[in-house]
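Contributing new complexes? Match this layout with magnesium ion.
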Amino acid sequence: MYLPEKTGLQHFVTAEPAPVPAVSVPVTVAHGDGIGPEIMNASLRVLAAAGAALEIEPIEIGDAVYRAGHSSGIAQASWDSLRRTRVFYKAPITTPQGSGYKSLNVTIRKSLGLYANVRPTVAYAPFVATRHPGMDVVIIRENEEDLYAGIEHRQTAEVYQCLKLITRPGCERIVRYAFDYARQNGRKKVTCVTKDNIMKLTDGLFHKVFDEIAPEYPEIANEHMIVDIGAARLADTPERFDMIVAPNLYGDILSDIAAQVAGSVGLAPSANIGIDCAMFEAVHGSAPDIAGQDVANASGLLLAGAMMLVHVGQPEVAARVQNAWRKTIEDGVHTPDIYVEGKSAELVGTQAFADAVIARLGLEPAHLPVIDPAPVAPVRIATAKPVVNRPPEKVLVGVDVFVDYNGPVADLAEAMQAVVMGSYGLQMITNRGVKVWPNGIPETSCTDHWRCRYIASPGKQFNRTMVIDLLRRLAAIGVDFIKTEHLYLFDGEAGFSLGQGQ
Ligand code: NAI
Ligand code: MG
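Output block (do not edit by hand):
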């Protein structure tokens, strides 16, 4: 109950004692870097006061572990804890710059098979300033594939490459997760966001799988947008979106846009869901610019904690936390990132904000919607296994040989043609994807990285031995080939893109 005749936080008392669930759930907790320890302490204090029955197993990850010599940022004992508890509550960590380190966030998500990154963003108008009061978007970001496979190579003096991997099972899993989430959470529409006008095979697959699966959910509207206009609309009119499903990179970018236009990156929680494990964290990073100052907003991590409580079967506690949090926001008790002079009531630091939420445990918001304990975990969705189809018939019809070379393309073409012995030929040479031979135009600027495409003559066979022979002859005349990509037909359909201008 709230004692209105008094002022100040010390006069809030909780309306009822916190119900204590019978069984404590083991949870692995990492306090992280930067603002991590501050917001994790604040969040854990609120969860404990709300009656969460959690058995905390602390682990150390991130900066200190990198500096202790683990280039992965995590020690073996921490994996043991994660594999035992299967629930991870994680504060943000700082990823060191430089090629000697891998992003620990990506490593954890992928190692634990956390394929779905669920990022709800809600506007809390008029209590948190936003130009989009009606905004309520859930972004489902694919979490394991795409450019985040982290497979990169320097191939020539001038050219670096990052491999973008998109798989059919990965697309099916995430698209199904999105529609199942929509169904379970009463959502009305899923928007698929890709760049398949350019990346016709990779993003094209994501879009195609979306179109295949959407009709299985006739009650949920579906649409597709190219990522550039999708991002523009999300920034401008987020109210028009209900749910978004996207490959990893676009999902990452879109969820920061969504969180920012909703009010603050400090407010947005995220759940990383796999078949067996789950990780709960804020959307934002370790914010080194404000670390150690007791000014960070703990809300993103706290609300992620509420998602975790639902996940581990403590929805009543989760609702208590969310309702007290909403009441605190409504009462204008704000950290600097959302504080507005004249509108907010009180400027508080990280720990005082946590105290304010604790003081309101048991209370409900008066204006914002009250959260009811969820009947089912909103993110724990058992999606159907991806369909395993008959493997397609795969026929090798040629090879792309990539060459490190400086000089006129005509000379390269002559050398690459001279080694051909058999029923195939040099079809084209491209530079950064653009056809420069035959019939290139002089305006095209070229780098030292050439793709030379050999293709079987019509009606003729091509095989791997011919590739090896070809490479042997190229090596003999001193051609510096750096990699090959095989050209396959799958059930008669080309498994490779054309050259630009081809
Ligand atoms: P960031 O999200 O840490 O900060 C961006 C801006 O938002 C900063 O101005 C920061 O002060 C502000 N901000 C972020 N969280 C806030 C909060 N809770 N309250 C108030 N203001 C907040 O992104 P940045 O600076 O690009 O990354 C910093 C480090 O975090 C990098 O090392 C990055 O790799 C890492 N990072 C870690 C993530 C994770 O652990 N899941 C996610 C994203 C970044
Ligand atoms: Mg991000």
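Reviewers usually confirm one structural detail per submission. For this one: Residues 168-184 form the longest helix (17 residues).
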